[in-house]
Amino acid sequence: IRETLFYNIHGQTGCAEVDSMTEAVAGKGFLLVCISCKRREEVPGSAIVDWHYKAAGSDEFIHVSRVILWIRKLDQLDGRLEWKGTMGTKDVQIGSVFIHNVTYNDTGTYLCTFHRTLYLPLNEEHVVISKEVELTVVENANPELTAVISEIMMYVLIAVLQLWMIGVLIYCYRKIYAENEARETRKTKQTHLHP
C-alpha cells in the first residue's frame, strides 16, 4: 500500500504515492494508509471509503469502517479509529485511518476499498479500487533496514571523506613545499650568476 503526498506547484495540486509502514507497536497508535490518486485531476468525482479487517488465520473480512464525505459511518474497533484522510471534499483521495492503542488482536489484513464516481461530460463512470495492508503488531519497534543501512553508509562516507581530506592536505602541502624549494633553488642560482 502507498501513502499519498500532495504538493502544490504554481496553484496546481499533484499526487504522489509512497510506501506505507506495516509494523505497529502494541499500545501505540498506527496509521493505516490507503490512497487512490485520480489519473485526471480535472475530472470531478466523489468517493466512499470502506475498511475491512481479516484476523490472522481467518478467511473472512469484517467491515470495520465506512467513510462518506469524511464522516465515519461505522467503527467496529471500539472507537479506536480516527479518520486521517482527505477532509473538506467529497472527492476523497487519501483514505487513511489511525488506530489508537494498537493491540495484538489488530494483527491481520486490512482491506481498503475506494468506490469512486467520476462525473464525465457524457456519463458517470464508477471505479472500485482495493488495497491491502498486512499489519503485524510487535512489542518493540524494530529499526527499518533502510535506516540501518543509511546510518552505516553515513559513517563510512564520513570516514572516507576525512581520509580524502587528509590526502588532499598532504598533497597540497607537498606541492607547496616543492614549489618553495624550487623558488629557493632559483634564487640561489640567480645570486651565484649575478654576484
Automatic annotation (TrEMBL):
A biological-process GO annotation: regulation of heart rate by cardiac conduction
Entry membrane topology: Single-pass type I membrane protein
Gene Ontology cellular component annotations, sorted alphabetically: voltage-gated sodium channel complex
Subcellular localization(s) per the UniProt record: Cell membrane
Keywords on record: Cell membrane, Disulfide bond, Glycoprotein, Immunoglobulin domain, Ion channel, Ion transport, Membrane, Signal, Sodium, Sodium channel, Sodium transport, Transmembrane, Transmembrane helix, Transport, Voltage-gated channel
Residue spans crossing the bilayer: 152-173
GO terms of molecular function: sodium channel activity; sodium channel inhibitor activity; transmembrane transporter binding
One Pfam family hit: V-set
InterPro entries on file: Ig-like_dom_sf, Ig-like_fold, Ig_V-set, Na_channel_b1/b3
Domain called Immunoglobulin V-set: residue spans: 21-137
Signal peptide start-end: none
PANTHER family: SODIUM CHANNEL SUBUNIT BETA-1 AND 3 (PTHR10546), SODIUM CHANNEL SUBUNIT BETA-3 (PTHR10546:SF4)
Subunit structure: A voltage-gated sodium (Nav) channel consists of an ion-conducting pore-forming alpha subunit functional on its own that is regulated by one or more beta subunits. Forms homodimers and homotrimers. SCN3B is non-covalently associated with alpha subunits and induces the formation of alpha subunit oligomers, including trimers. Interacts with SCN5A/Nav1.5; regulatory subunit of SCN5A/Nav1.5. Interacts with SCN7A/Nav2.1; probable regulatory subunit of SCN7A/Nav2.1. Interacts with SCN10A; regulatory subunit of SCN10A/Nav1.8.
Family: Belongs to the sodium channel auxiliary subunit SCN3B (TC 8.A.17) family.
Record-given protein name: Sodium channel regulatory subunit beta-3
Species assigned in the record: Sinocyclocheilus grahami
